[in-house]
Amino acid sequence: MRISYREAMRQALHEALANDPRVFLMGEDVGRYGGTYAVSKGFYDEFGPERIRDTPLSELGFVGAGIGAALGGMRPIVEVMTVNFSLLALDQIVNSAALLRHMSGGQVSVPLVIRMATGAGRQLAAQHSHSLENWYAHIPGIRVLAPATIADARGMLGPALADPDPVVIFEHAQLYNMEDDLRDEPNEDWACDIEHAAIRRPGSQLSLITYGGSLPKALDAAAELARDGIDVEVVDLRVLRPLDTATIAESVSRTHRAVIVDEGWRSGSLAAEVMARIVERCFYDLDAPPLRVCSEEVPIPYAKHMEDAALPQAAKIVAAVREVLNV
Amino acid sequence: MATVARFEIGFTRFLDAEGEATQELPAFVLDPANLIPLYRAMQLTRAFDTKAIALQRTGKIGTFASALGQEAIGVGVAGAMRKEDVLVPSYRDHAAQFVRGVTMTESLLYWGGDESGSNFSVPREDFPICVPIGTQVCHAAGVAYAFKLRKEPRVATCFLGDGATSKGDFYEALNFAAVWRAPLVVVINNNQWAISVPREHQSATPTLAQKAIAAGIEGVQVDGNDVIAVHDAARKAIDKARAGGGPSLIEAISYRLGDHTTADDATRYRDPDVVQQQWANEPIRRLRNYLARIGAWDQEKEERLLKECTEQINAAVEAYLAIPPPATTAMFDHLYATLPATLQEQREAAQWFASRDGGGSHG
């Protein structure tokens, strides 16, 4: 069955709403409008205004309300329109959602799912193009997911809702229109693991480690390199907290080389964390210093030619791989 | 110009500073049996505060926030809640928490650095103390919305201070709770001080209650030193919320007779003479005078009550001191439902570090 990332996410949400009365969706324009990225289209009519709750422009407030409702026995899904606006809700996520289990001595848990679009590449300019997944991945007490395939878009939400702890899901805005075959699952159970990284393309000469919106670019780069006889493995982190160090280390200790692709800014990036873990675990297995392909450390430009130049691209990835392999 | 809307804020007081009725009292007051538990709870809170400060000064607990002079607010509101309602407290609300069934030993554990003190044995659905300012109003609106979604006749009651009404969280929560008609009662303990910043430097509005008007809900002001006025306003607001009438805001005017916390020294920024004058308004003497006037209280009863409070508090302190401090690894215990593997390694490292000198202490 060939479907889009958007449709996969929509099906996952629909399933959750239909099967569990504790689940409700809230956020800006999720109701009549059907979601800024049309992920909740049709839900307002089907599930009603109380379960598909349009909120005032109030990120701090409605993320906090999601926390309160989660403590009150519900399974809220809060849609923050984009990661850019989630900055207003950081206090609620960092100081409350991540900490209330601890602060209550285990009396409460916060079974809250927060979804948000992330990333650049659509000419939305500096204030609407952030990739701040690493900020969230920094915080103990939450789980951070970055579905980058149709199967993960379809399968991560269910386990995220079943998780007794808060889960933040990053949906890269450039992935919504991506289409692929959704594998047929027995009993239509698409639930997937939210613990591990995945090898999306096996290879032997270098590990290309990435996540989210950069995955298609990394796969394109790997395909291009393959045409020149260079065999690259592509690792999709999938889960940004807790990071699956074992899969990263296993891959790099086998290929002996690594390039990390991360749309976040280089300094203090997730790519830096992955590189640190590679050095800690695989130092003596490395045949060359690892490299990073990140966004240039500039405000993401509005003009297309500059935006393209600021972001990781397949050509930049190919060049980095060739540099590490010295070919 | 046409007037398109007009608003007013009412102020309610039933007992003046001397405990004289200033107007006809509400029906529940006519039976003193309804007032004595409120009096008792205020006295217990005050005695607990005295003890807790002494425990802090002797290193037995950490920083502590006293409710001195503000006992009527927590007691009056919590006494109007039903068991199945949910309290969303800030850090100065142990008066309300004790009425709800949180034990004094649990409170001491909390202030002593043991998070298990927030795992309440009785009000299992009450929220833990919220230390950040104002964020809990959003949580309270959320749990109230959960009640509404499930069509449960329950109410969330949330406390905050006067300083917190300057926060965006407070405005945002009132705004959407009003749109959603969530069963929420928000109570401002206006004790006149946000640490060292006085009320008039916090907000130019003549009342804090009028901030409700911006959200389209009812806001009232009461004398927070008059437990009857607090209790009466809380009952009305809670009943209204339970009946589907949506949220309300209550501003209870009190005075912080003590320091902000034990980490503060208020003599550095406020005139002790002014504080001394405010003692004339405090809530306990006021209710005692009233009860004595109607013949429901006397010196013997007072002495017996104070003795009981002391005994109860001493027993709670003894129980607290007998509980060993949490293991160093407890900081990992309630981070996730299941600790991720990478944190397991950090937990083991903490265990190794702690094993070098064996155990810690409270506070």
Automatic annotation (TrEMBL), chain A:
Signal peptide: none
Pfam family, one: Transketolase_C
Co-factor requirement: thiamine diphosphate
Keyword field contains Phosphoprotein: no
Keyword DNA-binding on entry: no
Xref: CDD domains: TPP_PYR_E1-PDHc-beta_like
SMART domains hit by this protein: Transket_pyr
Entry-linked SUPFAM superfamilies: Thiamin diphosphate-binding fold (THDP-binding), TK C-terminal domain-like
UniProt xrefs under InterPro entries: THDP-binding, Transketo_C/PFOR_II, Transketolase-like_Pyr-bd, Transketolase_C
GO molecular function: oxidoreductase activity
Domain Transketolase-like pyrimidine-binding: 3-178
Keyword vocabulary terms for this entry: Oxidoreductase, Pyruvate, Thiamine pyrophosphate
Protein name: Pyruvate dehydrogenase E1 component beta subunit
Organism: Aromatoleum tolulyticum
Lineage of producing organism: Bacteria, Pseudomonadati, Pseudomonadota, Betaproteobacteria, Rhodocyclales
TrEMBL record, chain B:
Keyword hit for Oxidoreductase: yes
Keyword set, alphabetical order: Oxidoreductase, Pyruvate, Thiamine pyrophosphate
Biological processes annotated in GO: branched-chain amino acid catabolic process
Recorded GO MF terms: pyruvate dehydrogenase (acetyl-transferring) activity
Cofactor field: thiamine diphosphate
Catalytic activity: N(6)-[(R)-lipoyl]-L-lysyl-[protein] + pyruvate + H(+) = N(6)-[(R)-S(8)-acetyldihydrolipoyl]-L-lysyl-[protein] + CO2
Start and end residues of each Dehydrogenase E1 component domain: 39-318
Pfam family, one: E1_dh
First-tier enzyme category under EC: oxidoreductase
EC nos: 1.2.4.1
Superkingdom: Bacteria
InterPro entries (alphabetical): Alpha-ketoacid_DH_E1_comp, DH_E1, PdhA/BkdA, THDP-binding
CDD domains: TPP_E1_PDC_ADC_BCADC
Known role: The pyruvate dehydrogenase complex catalyzes the overall conversion of pyruvate to acetyl-CoA and CO(2). It contains multiple copies of three enzymatic components: pyruvate dehydrogenase (E1), dihydrolipoamide acetyltransferase (E2) and lipoamide dehydrogenase (E3).
Subunit structure: Heterodimer of an alpha and a beta chain.
Protein name as it appears in the record: Pyruvate dehydrogenase E1 component subunit alpha
Species of the source: Aromatoleum tolulyticum
